[in-house]
């Protein structure tokens, strides 16, 4: 894929590079252990190596990549235990976010939610190519509605990890559409200022997402075990 970014784009070249590389990691295009070579990435994106270097440094500070002696920059292997720990943290923080959002709901936010709900209902009828992008947008809208800048900042950092885990969980048949419906129901409860219902639905959503991720990991382990058995001498 050839990518060209003009200098007058809305985002700076360095920001484009950062967002592009992070998205490739979150989407699984760059997998754990893959080397990220500045020269190759710069050539692929038709930009200088400086914004690539800055993007990699930023990604390393967030834990997505790490520098390995004699190997260079590689994609970090985020452990299953770490992901489950983040789900546990989210079960408290995102529930707090929807509670605050319901309490602070105003007309402007209600209109935003109504618009997003209609977009998601339409997405449910169509193909799912845009679902990953919409998943991020849904979370950001819900968390922004809490009107707590510090909470939004904390959740934004954690959600990148969950996005990665969610993509794995979506391999479970039917999970994408199930997750979409869960988000729609959460936003409807928020719009109607039903705080208790929004908190309950958010807890269910996070638990279902965690279960889908665990199911995916169990299936991966089972496949690996089968391959190992086939390779073993009889």
Main traits of this protein?
71% helix; 2 strands; mainly alpha; single chain; globular; 234 residues
Written overview of the protein:
With 234 residues, this protein is mainly α. Helix content is 71%, strand content 3%. The protein has nine helices and two strands. The protein has helices at residues 13-26, 38-45, 49-61, 80-103, 107-125, 131-144, 149-169, 175-191, 195-231; strands at 65-68, 72-75. The protein has a two-stranded antiparallel sheet with strand order 1-2. Strand 1 and strand 2 (72-75) form a beta hairpin. The radius of gyration is 20 Å and the shape is globular.
Biggest beta-sheet profile = 2 strands, antiparallel
Strand order in space, largest sheet:
1-2
Order of helices and strands: HHHEEHHHHHH
Number of helices: 9
Shape label: globular
Number of strands: 2
What's the overall average pLDDT, rounded? 85
What is the distance, rounded to the nearest whole angstrom, between the alpha carbons of the first and last residues? 45 Å
Unreliable stretches, pLDDT < 50, 5 or more residues? none
In terms of DSSP E residues, the strand content is: under 5%
Estimated radius of gyration = 20 Å
**Fraction of residues in H or I helices:** over 70%
Structural class: mainly alpha
Looking at how many chains there are and whether they match, the oligomeric state comes to single chain
């Amino acid at each position: 894929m050839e990518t060209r970014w003009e200098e007058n784009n809305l985002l700076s070249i360095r920001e484009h590079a950062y967002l592009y590389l992070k998205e490739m990691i979150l989407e699984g295009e760059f997998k754990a252990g893959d080397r990220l070579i500045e020269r190759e990435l710069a050539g692929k994106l038709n930009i200088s190596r400086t914004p690539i270097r800055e993007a990699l440094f930023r990604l390393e500070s967030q834990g997505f990549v790490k520098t390995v002696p004699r190997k260079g920059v590689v994609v970090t292997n985020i452990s299953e235990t770490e992901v489950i720990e983040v789900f546990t943290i989210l079960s408290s923080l995102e529930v707090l976010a929807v509670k605050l959002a319901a309490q602070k709901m105003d007309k402007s936010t209600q209109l935003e939610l109504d618009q997003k709900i209609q977009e998601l209902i339409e997405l449910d009828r169509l193909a799912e190519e845009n679902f990953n992008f919409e998943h991020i947008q849904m979370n950001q809208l819900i968390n922004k509605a809490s009107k707590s800048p510090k909470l939004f900042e904390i959740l934004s950092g954690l959600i990148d990890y969950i996005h990665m885990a969610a993509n794995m969980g979506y391999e479970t048949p039917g999970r994408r559409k199930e997750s979409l419906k869960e988000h729609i129901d959460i936003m409807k409860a928020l719009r109607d200022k039903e705080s208790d219902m929004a908190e309950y639905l958010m807890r269910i959503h996070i638990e279902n997402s965690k279960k889908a991720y665990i199911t995916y990991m169990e299936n991966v382990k089972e496949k690996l075990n089968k391959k190992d058995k086939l390779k073993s001498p009889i």
